[in-house]
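Explain the record.
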Amino acid sequence: MTRLLTTYLRPYWRSLLVVVALLTVQAIANLYLPNLYADIIDNGVAKGDTTYIMHTGALMLGVTLLLGITSIIAIYYASRTAMAFGRDVRDAVFRKVLAFSQVETNIFGAPSLITRNTNDVQQVQMVIVMALTVMILAPIMAVGGVIMALREDVPLSSILVIIVPLMAIVLGSLVSRAMPLFRAMQVKIDRINRVMREYLEGVRVIRAFVRTGHEEQRFDDANADLTDTTLRVQRLFALMIPSLFLIMNLSSVAIMWFGGLRINNGDMPIGNLMAFLQYVMQILFSVMMATVMFVMVPRAAASAERISAVLDTPISLHDPEQPAPAPAALGTVEFRDVEFRYPGAEDAVLREISFVARPGTTTAIVGATGSGKSTIVNLLPRFYDATSGSVLIDGVDVRDIRQEDLWHLMGLVPQRAYLFSGTVGTNLRYGNEQATDEDLWHALTIAQAREFVSAMPDQLDAPIDQGGTNVSGGQRQRLAIARAIVKRPRIYVFDDSFSALDFKTDSALRLALREETRDATVFIVSQRVGTIMHADQIVVLDSGTIAGIGTHEELMETCETYREIVYSQLTREEAA
């Protein structure tokens, strides 16, 4: 937590100095007031000097006004600094997560990353506000109060030797028990987020399988678990306030008792006793204010650990120290003896993958479920890196190219077509902000999406919900294909992007696409034989290895695996 605070509060050291200075002035003024109060009692009231009372009273009002002004300014700067800290940390976490490969993202999980960038940052942010208004003021008041109490009466100050350690023992025992519970609370918040996210994303499946009751029970279990942990924490701190007030009240009784005895013996003026009592109350209230921090700090410390875990996670995919110039001429893609295994896996998903895809040609990748089709195309944009071997573009290893330069070369349509909240136009311009409306309509025509977009009331300005939930699966896929076309990349990657289309639309789209991509390198991953049988080159995968490469006609003669796939979908006449 300390490193996180020092790193992200350093730019605001001037504001911190202002807050410290103002709170120091405020503490001195607070310590000065009991002295003035004692003077009024001993010199004004005792002697009947009205002028002295009025003069000292006016001075006390001035000090109180100063306290109010410094408090307002200090809280303003403290709040501004804390909000800036939260903004910077959220930005740092977001940028770090953007740089994650799929490996790091899978380690944390999406629900946990969301919690860390929202709830966890908020916990630390709240502690900073409290620290800049309470933790700075409390020690100054406590130390100053002890010094001033000693000035008033040294023998009576011996009571503090008992009071302060007693309060420290009570607080220490409670905080030590609460710290593990606070860590557990953040994990259980992650669990609630995960259950809620799964329900929202899988609501259709849940309803179709009549599992609403099961999901409600899952949420109830997670919610009850969090509630139980929170109640355990609250029970601990429910003991704290009564215990501290008991100590404070007993301290007041003891001070009045022993102070009365000293006044009776003539060892102490009554004004000094009143001032001493106020100083002791200031000391104890400083401890009380610190107690509020003790309630918040353990949870914030747990949150800071979770944030630091994200920020300190090494990224497995880096830009090279001396990147090669981005290939811009052809777009020839070569897989050279590529092997890939997922982190921690014993067996490789891909083995001895070697083939070349050239510009102006379409390379189709086909195989049984789990054979590694999507994994191959995920190696192209470096969502993962090959375990061994090389993936080259125009003879340059993709690991030697800056990731942004690499991504500029590609137009990717993923297996799960995803649209962003906005409009049809903003989604299509996602990869090319300078695209004109004519470019968008041209891409929509090729993607067979012009008809349904034209039917929308606002056409290109028609709203799209997050994830594209307000359009059908086929419409979502066609808009994702149009988005890739608008980018005009050198390499197109269609990862099972035609599965939601009917055969007529699929055929028309591929025919229009062939003309549009005649100078580009095209990869198509598909389970549907009708989609890939006219490709210039078909790569057949079987359990992570290449079972055959060639055209449809060549593979029908030479590759048993391909024939099995074809005959499972087409008759012999259709296959011919």
